[in-house]
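Give me the fold.
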Amino acid sequence: MKNTLYIIIALISLLSCNNKSKKDIIAPPHLIKFKGNYTKNVIVLLNQNKTNIVGFPSKNDCMGSSSCFIQDVHNGYVYDAYCCLAGLNSGVLDIKRDKYNDDTVTKDILMTHLLDKDPFVEFWEMKVEFVFDSMKGNTDTTFINKIIDDGKIETYFNRIK
């Protein structure tokens, strides 16, 4: 009886699992060009209409004590290997990361510091087939710089904006 129960539970578990694609499992890295020099600014998540902040980082995210950071690469691009940006709904604050303290902030206070609701000139998302290589550490800035220098961004990234 116990074995039958375990088999039923196992079957239910297997049947309820979705067949997720690689894209569903992981957020892909980004290659972006900002309108300004925003690499040291705090980035927040805006709602769809870009009228409210719906998410903001912790102090640790901004101070480099986590893996969340963006890197300057060639030709004015920035590589977001760890998906720190919130996609096209990212907003840039006039607060620098090294001055940011999330202990006393609220979304309303941060909204008064919103510098740019549409900070991107270009926004590229890594193609699914290359995401797992990047997660294994096979996509470093040297490789990204070569892609840019060789004019092959489209080979590895999809242009979103």
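Residues 1-25 have pLDDT under 50 and may be disordered.
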